Amino acid sequence: MSLLEVRDLVAGYEPGLxxxxxxxxxxxxxxxxxxxxPNGAGKSTLARAVAGLVPVAEGTVMLGGGSLLAVPAHxxxxxxxxxxxxxxxxxxxxxxxxxxxxxxAVLPRAARAGRIAAALALFPDLAAARGRAAGLLSGGQRxxxxxxxxxxxxxxxxxxxxxxxxxxxxxVGTVLAKLREIAAGGVAVLLVEQNVRAAxxxxxxxxxxxxxxxAHAGTAAALRDDPRVAALYLGGVRxx
Amino acid sequence: xIGQILIDGITSGAxxxxxxIGLTLTCGLLRFANFxxxxxxxxxxxxxxxIAGALGGxxxxxxxxxxxxxxxxxxISMGLTALLAWSLDAVxxxxxxxxxxxxxxxIASFGASLALRSAVEFLFGPEPYYYSRDIAMTLRLAxxxxxxxxxxxxxxxxxxxxxxxxxxxARTPLGRAMxxxxxxxxxxxxxxxxxxxxxxxxWLLGGALAAAAxxxxxxTVQVRPAMGFELLLPLFAxxxxxxxxxxxxxxxxGLVIGIAEAAAVPLAGAQYRAAVAFVVMLAMLxxxxxxxxxxxxx
Amino acid sequence: xxxxxxxxxxxxxxxxxxxxxxxGLNLQWGSAGLFNVGVAGFAGVGAYAAAxxxxxxxxxxxxxxxxxxxxxxLGAMLAAALVAAVIGAVTLRxxxxxxxxxxxxxxxxxxxxxxxxxxxxxxxxxxxxxxKPFEALADRPLAFGAANLALAAAVTAAAFLALERLTxxxxxxxxxxxxxxxxxxxSLGKAPARFRLQAFVIGAALIGLSGAMQAQFFGFIAxxxxxxxxxxxxxVMLVVGGAGNNRGALLGAVAVxxxxxxxxxxxxxxxxxxxxxxxAALRVVAIGVVLAATLLARPRGLIxxxxxxxxxxAQAGG
Lengths: 240, 298, 318
Fold this sequence. Notes:
The structure holds three protein chains of three kinds. By secondary structure, chain A is of the alpha/beta class. Chain A is built from ten helices and ten strands. Chain A has a six-stranded mixed β-sheet with strand order 6-7-8-3-9-10, sandwiched between helices. A four-stranded antiparallel β-sheet of chain A has the order 2-1-4-5, with helices on one face. By secondary structure, chain B is mostly helical. Chain B has one domain: ABC transporter involved in vitamin B12 uptake, BtuC (Orthogonal Bundle). Chain B has helices at residues 2-30, 37-55, 68-99, 102-124, 149-171, 173-183, 185-190, 195-220, 227-242, 247-268, 273-287; strands spanning 138-142, 145-148. Classes of the chains: A alpha/beta, B mainly alpha, C mainly alpha.
């Protein structure tokens, strides 16, 4: 059994109007699965449904053998699932240190300082900016803080909704490379991306969603090398 | 003249600020304007009246008109009013929030405010009460600047409460969680914050501070069923002036409104007090709807 | 028997006058989504305007032109519309709950003015001896009551029919579209500010008319009539009847006025002597509980909005 198992998931913001229409996948520890697809395909909705922010109409979401569906969103981080939303993913009016402290508050008291230190070691930029309001950080720093925030409670699965959106091209590779490091520590990573080329470069497996259904699934390497799939679903983007 | 306006304005402004803290917090957190906030001050004042009466007469403290029973009553009343605010949320607002329309909440709070005020009027009658029949001793602070000992003690207590509230928000995990939920409820959930607990704490704190404002108003003016209603526009004005969601903003906004009211009384007459708060608020909404301290936009 | 019948006529007359205010509020809130918590202010403006125009000259207050009642009611609508145009021009662009606070503040301020500008308004004592319609019939209570009821019914019916036509017209459809999705409607080239101001002003004119009707049927007005309790009553009528529906607005007005009247009678019978003077306060508590219970149990009111509106409303309401 895999660490995260999603089966026949149907989800959407309004009853009777599903955006995700029967999607299933499995994700193991240390693995990165990237969700690709055109705008409106349901990638973000799928990630948000797993995080508990979008109502699930049908299907199951299992983490480590237990169902997440009955777990309210604010308890899912404690259950081992971290989520980084696309926008509004840091508390802008709070300082960097306060953002990190909020993330650590779900841990036992003795573990907090250690986890914050580990996150700062992964993102050294943040250590220097501890006293600043998160709203004043650069786009790259903000994204690092958002990832650090989700990482501090030591999740077993981390889902990220387009962490590279709005970043300078140079930073996209840096941020995605950090995900590889995080996965190397045994975390399963579910990554929603528009930045196909960069995402396929770090992912192990890829899944293409079209109109709320899985149109293709396989290894990232196979998708990189498959011109038909790339042309069909990814707007002609091809790996070199 | 100016000195007198300042001391009177600051005293009443401190009470307005205390009451406005709860208003600005619930408004920032739950995105609705609670018309019942003023009634928490009224109920707080009447709770203290009952409790101080039950505790019995004791000699006034120093130059004050009241003794320790009123101070004990203040604390108990803050607790009771906190519970009242929390139960109003539990019985009414929390259920309506599930329907998801903020305006329905405002209508409900408008109804709740009239019901709460009328309940007080039914139980105690329309006539004013006083915590003490003693004449307040007046002190001369500076040429042309007089204040009663009661006024000064009340001002000091109000400032202590504001400082405590500020420290709670700035320094404690609960305060951090309150600011987080106020800014971004979805992210707060993802970060593991139990929003329901934060909302509960906000009602309890807002109710307790409003009760203190009511008791202080009762000490320096009188205890009447309409006292909270008359406080309502100043409370809204202070919260909007300071920026919705900002606690320091509500405190400063309260002082500004208090001083503006005190300054307007010699010009327009005491009967236009509420209108002064309204005019200041309207000007603020039109010129700078985010408030002095850049809270949530209008 | 005659006494009871003429009382019922008076009851229905007053209920219908509240109905006109509820119709006005329904245009503002139900159709345009404008959150007016200053209903009492507009009703007061209408009442004082009608009193000034129709009353006989008196030393205690301004006006006293002794003009026909029809002219008084027309003037009341114009005066309320004018005040609404000024308030609306300043506040309608604010977010809904700020509009609520500012209209509330405007009503409080208007009430303070009515209390203080004694030379104009007669101050706290108000204006008495406002002529009643059909005063010639005053010595035959039943005929007098029936004639007044017929007048109130005719005015209410006219307002109802005009609003039905208005809300079914393209203008009404634009209003509802604006209420649901301002950005989308604005992108179709509809200027939201103008439509909303028009709805606000027309609604206020009806609320002013309702104030004028009550001034004339009671023959006496004072600032105390225009406290927030009045606003509250009209809101409860609209919420109980069902916002967005003119039939519901009228049904709510009659139902809530009946409840208000009956609860007054019941309290007078049930409360021991000392508490009777405070019965009015308990009545407000009772109506407040009715409002809360309606909002919780039947958020769309007794009738609710007709399903001609788009699916968004149905989903939001359901």
